[in-house]
């Protein structure tokens, strides 16, 4: 072994203490390929962890801000979101077809050749940081081990805030080869420390080896192995075993009298209210992004957050709409901001509230010449005028730092799941909240989520796209197999423990294009769902599912916000838009008919839903049905 070339004696001992030949093999293979100047093994000790943060500062990948513990990182003008185009699944010869239209694939041999060539020498002159993590709580049946090699101290530092230390977990692996590994290089950097060759950005997913190779990027959704790259590997692993990996928050919903707590999971496409639902005041949070779900011997569904931090969108975090996060960003603690405006050591972002005056100049992401923004800035190299902070600017913090963290965050057995919510950004079709008739109907609802695109991915915003289970960007198994896994999961849950499934939509607009809902109104829809889980309120059966009664919603608005929820708004929000739903079914039908092996049960649900809508249309002779028609 020639690891001595890069790694000093003390570090080598740490590596050897793992007694895992595959770990050493992988490290040697990629140090040989990427050619860093040296490599550093990071274990779970506070000194090693502090080293990573300091390195990010010394290398100017992060800049220290005025409040203790806070730093800012800039990803670079062309690297502000997930790059779907250059994120590809390496498909073995002859398998490309089976992945269908929605999964971006490249021939495995060709793709490997391409990415390995780009990675050759990508770490030249840099330090490779080698880290060990646990995806999920330590000493838990849910959790997986993950090895990260990166030349970005920002990436390694972010992962420290977001994931649990896993050096000791790797020891427990003994010589097992069952771990994920992620190789990342930010590639050549500009004099502002952002990635230079963004055109050679690649994120290639290799299911065969449980590895992801990522190069020429820094944005966390592209670079951090443990985030969306591990999500993809885990979706594949789960489906071939007997559990699920989902793009879901985990929160405990508390009724107004605080007499109990009920755990909900929620899947929403990126930038569609997932974090803010998980953070609704009055509730406690376990996670905001990724959950592993298992069925226990006693028949219930349990879930863990594989993360221990939040990489959240900062836009609209204000004292009014997101008081918990706002307070945490305004007080000293370890925090990494990205792509915000910085002036005199302070952070500024879009929608932070009227209590703050945005300075007239500062440093931001606007051009490759960071640091040159000023009021009325026009224009950057592309001739564009820009807002002072990016709509996908973010913050990274540890969940333990939050006052509303739930006490079960690190429970190795996770929490019992009572309900699952699916939501999307839908301005014209669905109602704010409804409940499915069954698990199978819930799978149909999840599979037919549609959402208008946002700043969380590169490309145009506001285009309606199909987003099954809010997970499409990350699904790396054929859609039919993915749906079958959900249906099969449901069949294995004890009958009296099947979670209720709900749909929410916070984005319904009136004729003038104004949202009906205020940002925190989602609290009401959650409170209603919580009551339904406990059998405490009846609901009205409609063609799409069970919807709330006016009296129940009115009472919740009154008790929670002292707000009078008027009948007119209820009718406007909860009318069943038959024609819009039928059109949606048509779109969904076409998509799934073009996929292989979609379970028949799914099409049955779709047809039943269509029939119910057609019958209601016939019965009432109109296309928009007032909720009061279903009073029974
Ligand atoms: C998302 O876009 O779904 C995120 C942020 O949670 S990232 O992980 O960067 O993709
Ligand atoms: Mn996400």
Could you explain how this protein is built, in words?
This protein has about 625 residues and is of the alpha+beta class. It folds into three domains: about 5-60 and about 80-240, 3-Layer(aba) Sandwich (Phosphoenolpyruvate Carboxykinase, domain 1); about 270-285 and about 425-435 and about 450-630, Phosphoenolpyruvate Carboxykinase, domain 3 (Alpha-Beta Complex); about 310-400, no CATH class. The protein is built from 17 helices and 34 strands. Strand 20 (about 340-345) and strand 21 form a beta hairpin. The mean pLDDT is about 95. The structure holds sulfopyruvate and manganese (II) ion. Sulfopyruvate (SPV) binds near residues 221, 228, 270, 289 and 456.
Uncertain runs: none
Overall geometry comes to globular
Report the biggest beta sheet as strand number plus sense, adding barrel if it closes: 9 strands, mixed
For the record, what is the CATH homologous superfamily label of the largest domain?
Phosphoenolpyruvate Carboxykinase, domain 1
Query: Helical region count?
Result: 17
**How many structural domains?**
3
Q: Any guess at the CATH architecture of the largest domain? A: 3-Layer(aba) Sandwich
Number of β-strand runs:
34
The averaged pLDDT comes out at 96
Amino- and carboxy-terminal Cα gap: 76 Å
What is the SS-derived class? Answer: alpha+beta
Strand content: 15-25%
Bound molecules: sulfopyruvate, manganese (II) ion
* CATH topology type of the largest domain: Phosphoenolpyruvate Carboxykinase, domain 1
Class of the largest domain, according to the CATH hierarchy? Alpha Beta
Give the helix level as a range of percent.
25-40%
Radius of gyration, in Å, reads 24 Å
